[in-house]
Specification:
Number of helices: 16
Distance between the termini: 44 Å
Structural class: mainly alpha
Helix content: over 70%
CATH architecture: Up-down Bundle
Number of strands: 0
Shape: globular
Largest sheet: none
Number of domains: 1
Strand content: under 5%
CATH superfamily: MFS general substrate transporter like domains
Radius of gyration: 20 Å
Length: 400
């Protein structure tokens, strides 16, 4: 084995270790998410209270995303990962104080924030430790790992609905502790960020501005499924908790299938204008199908199809950004792009929750889906503008 191959193998093992640690942290947040969304609907019959869980889970991250980007560019990313996991153990320990709505929302905000920090640290580490020709594969594994952790979290959350709060507390703390144990820091070269600030990041942001604004709109609309999912199963369909678990499982199972297709080379990780545009449009159509004719047996297959679509889009866009964004700006670029991609989600989650108090919520979900379908075709022009700004050939330029 040559020195280069040995170095690559060592870095692969480091990547796998931190990937497993991140997956455990993410699984814990999904478990928390599923359990309390269901419990709030079951206990209070309130879609509004359930909608606060996804709202708070994103709000905390958005509050720290800018300083987090600076931190990841200026400090050892593996050490930031480890510290976030350590604090996550303490955050879940707050549940031993009780399960009031205040405690639930505080833990929701803090735990999701820390899990996001761990994810962003891992994303930055890919750029630092993996060669460029491995970016697509590493991103695919990263996205697939998120889906697997979501599956485990959803199954665990469904089980905890039956087992109860006493088991939930112990399980969450144990997952966070295992994640911290696996994320023990490594020695990493610090990127040269001397004299660099967000002004340089905005050079890249401007090139992707149209696409980022579009993602702001679409993600804000798609959060309606998170807000209303438990209500559809519990209130509209009068189905028990395990059907809600199946409904949620569809999305990450679809993501795993999509990740496998990419890993096997059946679908390219290279950015495709036409494919991503069709996928975004299809997600809007599927969202409309969920709202128009909810069926307890069909819903999981619709969310499964959404999962396949979303991971294809995410892998292609993430691999593209890793190639074009310099390593010393990766953390700050990620923080700004997240403000666009997720910035509307907590606001829209609160809006959808509030609308459910005045309008029958399946009708609101239908309206969100129709807007998403109408906006989706603009994805093509947004991506074409971005690719041309970076000097990357599009499909239409390669066929003429």
């Amino acid at each position: 084995m040559t020195d280069n191959n040995l170095h690559l193998e060592v870095n692969r093992r480091i990547f796998y270790r931190f990937l497993i640690a991140r997956n455990l942290a993410k699984a814990s947040t999904f478990l928390f998410y599923v359990y309390f969304i269901w419990e709030l609907v079951a206990k209070f019959h309130s879609v509004f209270l359930a909608g606060l869980v996804p709202a708070f889970s994103l709000l905390g991250y958005l509050l720290i995303v800018i300083p987090e980007g600076h931190l990841l560019d200026r400090r050892n990313r593996s050490r930031v990962f480890f510290i976030a996991d350590g604090i996550l153990v303490l955050a879940y320990s707050l549940l031993f104080l009780g399960d009031t709505i205040l405690i639930i929302m505080v833990v929701d905000l803090i735990s999701s924030l820390l899990a996001w920090v761990a994810s962003d640290s891992l994303q930055g580490m890919i750029k630092s430790i993996m060669p460029e020709d491995q970016y697509g594969k590493a991103v695919s594994m990263n996205q697939t790992g998120t889906a697997i952790s979501e599956i485990l979290g959803i199954i665990g959350g469904g089980a905890m609905i039956y087992l109860g709060m006493s088991y939930l507390r112990i399980f969450l703390v144990a997952l966070a502790f295992l994640s911290a144990a696996l994320s023990f820091p490594i020695v990493m070269e610090r990127a040269d960020t001397h004299g660099k600030n967000y002004g340089e990041v905005f050079v890249f942001i401007r090139k992707m501005a149209f696409l980022l604004v579009l993602s702001l709109i679409l993600n804000g609309l798609f959060i309606s499924l998170d807000v209303y999912g438990s209500g559809l199963i519990r209130i509209v369909l009068h189905a028990p908790a395990y059907y809600y678990t199946l409904f949620l499982l569809g999305f990450p199972v679809g993501s795993v299938l999509g990740g496998l297709l990419i890993s096997m080379g059946k679908i390219s990780s290279k950015l495709s204008l036409i494919l991503v545009t069709v996928e975004v449009l299809f997600i809007g159509i599927l969202l409309l199908a969920v709202a128009i004719d909810p069926d307890v047996f069909i819903e999981p297959f619709l969310t499964l199809a959404m999962g396949v679509d979303v991971i294809i889009i995410n892998v292609q866009l993430s691999a593209f950004s890793l190639k074009v964004i310099p390593n010393d700006l990766t953390g700050r670029y990620n923080s700004i792009s997240v403000l666009f991609s997720a910035g509307a989600s907590p606001v829209m989650a609160l809006l959808f929750s509030a609308l459910s108090r005045f309008i029958y919520f399946p009708l609101v979900l239908e309206g969100a889906a129709i807007i998403a379908i109408a906006v989706a075709p603009l994805t093509y022009f947004a991506m074409r503008s971005m690719m041309r700004a970076f000097g990357v050939k599009t499909e239409e330029s390669t066929t003429t």
